[in-house]
Amino acid sequence: MKSNPLFLCFLFLIGACLGIQAQSIPFQVNVNHPGTRALLDLPAGNNDVILCNLIPGNTYTVLANGAYKDQLTRFDFFTLPQEKLEATLVQNNKGDDNGIRFTALRDCQTLHILAANAGIEPMFVSVMCENGDQNKWLKSFENKIEAVNLSVDPAINGSVLIKNVLVGGNCYNVTNISSAGDNNSRGTFANGGSNIGINQGVVLATGPITELPGPNDLTNANGGFSSNSPDDPDLKLLDGGNQYDLSKLEFDFTPTAN
């Protein structure tokens, strides 16, 4: 029986196309000790993330979390037996394998993430070294926290923050007050003289300001809102990327006294 050469060529081209589609471009993240957080836009399927600037023999924990609130996409780490990587998968409270703990074999290590989504989804990858300087830094931070009595008052109306706290007095006419971001991303702070050099004032954050008093000593802490904010045009000039957890206050003021 003779085979149809055109039919065979057609099948070969389909196989070649499928093979090309199955490959993804690896993402490289340079780790700054003791920790690094990077935003990646992952396509659906298997993705390779190359971590560089690792210290062979040190242990690292890596977490993959969605970039915005109520993101349905799962990000699961998986390992390949042939790579002989001493790794333990870490699950979140939903049962997803969104974390991995491993001992670096070389200065650049490839990890594998399965993105269970229909298209391209943003993801934060957080890398934390568990050896050496990280422990020293954490201990130093804990010692400082013991001497700090920073207090915060969240979810204060933007107009109140501007007129009663930031500007104050009767020397200015304040107009066009507007605010953006989660209510808990703004408020007031007090007792800050011993640690930040300012006793009290207004605070804006990319997460709940209630996290500020600390101790914030968990390596997998995530205090953000994961909110895909409308881009601020002024910040857009500094960074062309997408903006998350934006918090801002805007107003105009005119002096009424010399």
Annotation keywords:
258 residues; alpha+beta; 14 strands
Describe, in short, the structure shown.
The chain is α+β, with helices and mostly antiparallel strands. 19% of the residues lie in helices and 34% in strands.
Description of the structure:
It is a single chain. The protein starts with a helix and ends with a strand. It is elongated. 19% of the residues lie in helices and 34% in strands. The longest helix is centred in the N-terminal third of the chain and has 18 residues, at 5-22. Strands 2-9-4-7-6 form a 5-stranded antiparallel beta sheet, with no helix packed on it. A hairpin with an 8-residue loop joins strand 6 and strand 7. With 258 residues, it is of the alpha+beta class. The chain is built from 4 helices and 14 strands. It has helices at residues 5-22, 133-146, 158-167, 233-238; strands at residues 27-30, 35-42, 45-52, 59-66, 74-78, 87-90, 99-103, 109-116, 121-129, 151-154, 172-180, 186-190, 201-204, 248-255.
